[in-house]
Amino acid sequence: MIRSTEGIVLKTFDLRETSRIASFFTKDCGKIKGVLKGIRADSRKFGSSVDRFSVNGLVYYEYRRSDLHLISQCDLKQFYFSIRKDYKRNVAANYMLELVDTVMPLEHANKKVYRLMLDYLGSLETVEDIDKLVHIFQIKILLLSGFRPHIDACVKCHKKVENKARFSLRAGGLICSQCPTSETHFTAISRGTIASMLHIEQSDWAKSSRLGLTNTARKELKYILNNFLVYHLEKKIRSARYLS
Ligand SMILES: [Zn+2]
After folding, report:
1. Which of 95, 161, 170, 205 could hold 165 in an S-S bridge, CB 3.0 to 4.6 Å?
2. Cα-to-centroid distance, 233 and ligand 1 (Å)
3. How far is the CA of 181 from the centre of ligand 1 (A)?
4. What is the share, in percent, of the chain residues with pLDDT greater than 70?
5. Those residues with Cβ within 8 angstroms of residue 143's Cβ, 6 or more apart along the chain or in another chain
6. Greatest distance between any 2 Cα atoms in the chain
7. pLDDT tens for residues 190-235?
8. In angstroms, what is the span from residue 165 Cα to ligand 1's centroid?
């Protein structure tokens, strides 16, 4: 079957002498893998050099018996020059790709994830506060991929958390001050940080981006999100260590 869609390049690797395999997160089909035959022998064969995080229009033959499809057309739509020129923006873009590649299964369409990636890349071209952008992305991708931490109530007694709470990495959520815990992998979390996380989950990209984050919230989000991801994903996100 021939499919036509658009997609963001997640990663590529060379195949034999002249071809390249690329994985994309596409608008209509989710994460797909395909071969671009002859792309390294003839650079004009495709209208794109298939660089990471570029957006491309795609036409491909979908094989039923294989995960690896044949890409017949790939045309560059968006390159993101400003991100590529700047080391920190580049790192943040590559971190996003690795995170999406890790949490999203193959060929599982999710238009919201695609939209989120475009919003993130669009903002990353110009925004000053890159750390905040990364946190917003982390919170939203956890929600959309089904890895969301439990932050509405205490994971043990299910009551709303009124004052001081702890975030348990193992339980994947909040434990209130009344509930005992013998766990060692937990950290204090302030109400402001919980409120910020809920606000980001419930708001669209533009509204989330306008949210101000206190220094406490930044510190807590950085520790909690990075460690939560490491704890709950089977794979370490390698590019995370390059983020400041
Ligand atoms: Zn409790």
Report:
1. 161
2. 25
3. 10
4. 98
5. 201
6. 66
7. 999 999 999 999 999 999 999 999 999 999 999 999 888 888 886 6
8. 9
Domains along the sequence of the chain with CATH:
2-78 (2.40.50.140), 83-150+167-242 (1.20.1440.120)
Q: Measured in angstroms, how far is the CA atom of residue 156 from the centroid of ligand 1?
A: 5
The answer for 181, left when phi > 0, alpha when psi is -120 to 50, beta otherwise, is beta
**Tokens describing residue 211:** 């949210």
Q: How far is the CA of 208 from the centre of ligand 1 (A)?
A: 29
Q: What is the pTM of this model?
A: 0.94
Tell me how far the alpha carbon of residue 214 lies from the centroid of ligand 1, in angstroms.
Answer: 26
Cα angle at 117 between 114 and 120, to 5 degrees? Answer: 150
The amino acid present at 60, given as its one-letter code, is Y
Report the half-sphere exposure of 4 (CA within 13 A, side-chain side). Answer: 2
Dist. CA 160 → ligand 1 center (Å):
8
Distance 134 CA to ligand 1 centre (A): 30
DSSP for 6-62 reads EEEEEEEEEETTTEEEEEEEETTTEEEEEEETTTTT-TTSSB----TT-EEEEEEEP
From the CA of 184, how far away is ligand 1's center (Å)? 16
Mean pLDDT of all residues in 165-180:
90
Q: Which tens digit of pLDDT belongs to each residue from 36-53? A: 999 999 989 999 999 999
CB 113 within 8 A of CB 96: no
